[in-house]
Amino acid sequence: MQVAASLAASDEKAASAEFLDVFGRLKQATSSATDTELATSLGIQQGSVSVAKKRLQIPAAWITKISKEFGVSADWILYGSGPMLRGNTQIAPVEAQKTATIPEGEPQWMSPEAAPSMGYSLIPKVQARLAAGTGSLETEGKVIGYYAFKTDFLRRKGRASKMVLMDVAGDSMEPVLQDCDTVLIDESKREIIAGGLFAVGIENAVFVKYLYSVPGKLILKSKNPEYEPIEVAMDGDLAGTVRIIGRVVWSCREYVR
Q1: How many C-beta atoms lie closer than 10 Å to residue 222's C-beta?
Q2: Residue 85's pLDDT band (boundaries 50, 70, 90)?
Q3: Domain boundaries defined on the chain
């Protein structure tokens, strides 16, 4: 009996871990910080999400919907294997970013002039690294390359003309974001939404945190419980240095560099 009970507990623990992995990737794919936001992305009631969590079962329809509407690989959602996107993003070569000349052997659509006609938009990636920890001083904002995204994908996320890519530094947002992950930020989305994931600048440091606004204070909260929230008094010395850069609307992770 003890052996049977132990095996049952082990199976339940494994099922729970597997569910949380898939559930986490669903939230990452939809840039959902909360269960409510995930439910909105899926077009369902939050109660359905609660039921799925209780049963440790993710309906196949959720996988299909997210894969279709967000261009995310079903294999990535289920197993965390392979690229996250199904062809939504590719790196445009540096040569094509600067001139209309396309390097020999490169696809024609990678030209800045050709990309829009092929249904793509080029999004700049900048030098600054968003600190998921104690802050990053790499805030030059220098463009180091462009990524081509499907335009209709970006339209579902926000304003493509106001979007920028940056890398994350640190572990304070794990497991949602890991060190060296890349995030897509919509700089037109600066209105604070409680619990939304935002890029925030304070003095010369840049952070990516869950953002909350309470009377007289701005609170930057990490996902990793080992990090205490950062509270900024809006009538204090740092108030004038705070800037909401934009909301994180998408993220990606490379498994081999």
Answers
A1: 23
A2: low
A3: 2-79, 89-252
